[in-house]
Amino acid sequence: MKGYSILPKNTMNYLTELMNQILNRRQQHLERRNDFIQIMVDHEEQVKHDEQEQQQIETLTKSNMLN
């Protein structure tokens, strides 16, 4: 099934590529702005950090129970 867009395909391709470049720069901490994109990037990083922290806590708890 073909999707429909109000923008031409080449415009969508340009905007997609631009967005990918912006996200890459933000994720690599090459650029920081006070905007919605930065809020989303920061949130994603915080979620990853929280998940890693939770996994470490669970691992420590299991280790403590076995010892």
Describe this structure in words.
This protein has helices spanning 9-27, 36-66. The chain has 67 residues and is mainly alpha-helical. The protein is elongated and about 65 Å long. The N and C termini lie far apart (58 Å). Residues 54-67 have a biased composition (Polar residues). Residues 46-67 are annotated as: Disordered.
Essential attributes:
67 residues, mainly alpha, 2 helices, elongated
Order of helices and strands: HH
The end-to-end distance, rounded to whole angstroms, is 58 Å
Mean pLDDT over the residues:
89
* Beta strand %: under 5%
Number of domains: 1
> Which of globular, elongated, flat, extended, rod-shaped describes the shape?
elongated
Q: Treating each run of at least 4 consecutive H or I residues as one helix, how many helices?
A: 2
For the biggest sheet, the summary is: none
Percent helix range:
over 70%
What structural category arises from helix and sheet content? mainly alpha
Poorly predicted runs? none
- The tally of beta strands, per DSSP, is 0
Q: Work out the radius of gyration.
A: 20 Å
Biased composition (Polar residues): 54-67
Region (Disordered): 46-67
Concise synopsis of the structure shown:
The chain is mainly α and 67 residues long. The protein is built from two helices and no strands.
Show the helix and strand layout.
Elements: H1 9-27, H2 36-66
